[in-house]
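HUMAN: Forgive my ignorance: could you write out one protein's sequence and backbone structure tokens?

ASSISTANT:
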Amino acid sequence: MNDNPLLLLVTASAGLYVAWQWLGDLRAARAGRPNPHAWPGATPAPGQAFALAAFGGVALTLAETWGESRLGLAAQQSQMTALFAAYTMLVAPFVEELIFRGFIVIDRRGAAARWAGAVGASLVFAALHPFLWEWKKGEPWHLTLTAKGWFSTGAVFTGSLWFYTMRLAARLNPHGSLLPCFSAHGAKNLAVVAVKAAQGFLVGWW
């Protein structure tokens, strides 16, 4: 994601507008009047699903931080502005979960197809994060196949699998709600921002 302030504000505004619509569908579902054309995953979820999802998200970030330290990669992480940190914590979890764990889910074709789809979508999700590639203004797109790039991409892939698990685990989340996914992703991103702040990689307002 580009950290251009104007682009971030426009994207955040669009994301918050869709979130408002999604919440309307969630309220209708809770009131027993579900919208037949509701946004994906706009259904209630048990409280324990929230807690487990958030715990897993934080645990994944702590494991990633430990791995970076053990491999000597911690100093190679990117800097983050306060504006981008706010977007990362408040908007990105909703937008990314709605797209991937909401729309990109194989349903009604059996568990094997559902989980195979989750793995495939997670590969795409990880590849879209700019750790193995770079594209800056005025420069051509190019690969950055470094140890840090591979490690961070693997961490994103693992996180995506956890988010899908929170959506697809029927016993934990019987209505297939996206709420646990938001909880997991938001907690993970919050932990990432906290780690960057503690290590001196949170710089400037925008």
Remarks:
- The CA atoms of residues 21 and 176 lie 18 Å apart.
- The chain has one domain: 5-199.
- Residues 5-199 form one domain.
